[in-house]
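pinging the channel bc i need a second pair of eyes. not urgent but kinda urgent?? the chain im working w is below, pasted from the shared doc
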Amino acid sequence: MSCAGLETTREAVAKYVNENYKGLVTQEFQPITINDVILVSGCSMALEMCFRVLANPGDNILFPKPCMGYSTWIVGCGIEVRYFNLDPKKEWEVDLDHLESMINEKTKAILINNPGNPCGNVYSKEHLLDILKVAERHKIPIIADEIYEFFTFPGVQFYPLAALSKNVPILTCSGITKRFIMPASRMGWIVINDRNNSLDNVRKGLFNLAGRNFVPNSTLTRALPEILSNTPQKFFDDNSKALFNHSLSAFNILKTCVGLTPIMPKGAMYLMVKIDFERFPSIKNCLEFSQILLSEQSVSVFPGFPCFNFPGFFRIVLTVPEELIIEACGRIKVFCEKHYKHDNEKYLKSG
C-alpha cells in the first residue's frame, strides 16, 4: 500500500468515476487512472489537503455563501477566505458577477459544492459551464466538493464538473458517507482531473501530504471495490425517492407558515428556509429563532448564521423518518403563529 492508498482500491475508484461519467463527458475528457486517485480518511480530509496544497499564507480561496464551515480548516494556516454569493431566488445558483469580483492575484482556487450543503442545490449543465468560463478566464483551478454526487431528486441530472471541463483543472473530493449512506465511515478520495498537466506540482504536493496523514482504515479500504461495484441501483433510487418525499412534505407545510419562505431543494439532504423578521419583531436573528424554537417546541434547526455564514435563514435535515418531518414542521408552524405579529401587516402596507 502506498501513501495514496491500496492500488486495487484506487483502481476501483478510477473505474467508478469513469463509468459514472459515461454520457456526461466532453470529447476532451481524459479517463481517470490510478495515478489520479488518492484515498483519504473522509471527504473533509480530502478538501483540507487540497486547500493546504493549493494555497500559501497570504493567498485566498473562494467559498460559496452560504456554505458549511470550510473556513475552519484553513484560517489557522494564514489563508484568506473570500465568499461569493449564491442566489436563493435562482435556486442557489452562483452569482457569477460577484464570483468574478472576488478574484484577485492571490486567488488560488474556487470551491464549488454541488449538490450542495446546506441548500440542496443541483446545478444545470449550462450553469456549470458558465462557472468554468470564469475559472478559465482567470486561470484558476476548481475544488469540487461532490460528496453528494448523483444524490439528486427524480428528474434532476447531476453533472460532475470534471466531466465538463476542457481546460480548467478540477480536484474532485468525494467519498461514501452520503450517497452510500455510511456516516462516519471516514472513507474518501481525491480525483485529480488535469488533462493539460498544469498542476504537476499540486499533484506532487497532494501525494506527499498523503504520506503525512492517516490513511483510511484497512477494512473499508479493502471493502470499497465491492461497495462501489455491487451496490444495486435500486438502493440509490429508493434513498433519493424517500428524501424527495421528505422534502415535499416539509416544503408543503413550511410554505403555509406565516413569515417563512422555504426553498425546494433538488438533491442532497437539506432544505433552507428564509425568515421574514419583520413578521417576528420580538426575535432578533436566526440564531435566536432556532434557540427559542428548540426551547418551546423541541425542534432543532440549524441557524443560517453562524452555521453557514448566511443570516436570515435556517436549515432542516431531511434524513429523519417522514412522520417526524411532518411532526417537526407542524410544530414550526405553531411556533410561527405564536410569534407572528398580525399588526405588522398595517405597517408593511403603509411602508
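so The first strand starts at residue 37 and ends at 40. and The CA atoms of residues 33 and 298 lie 49 Å apart. — does that match what u expected or am i reading it wrong
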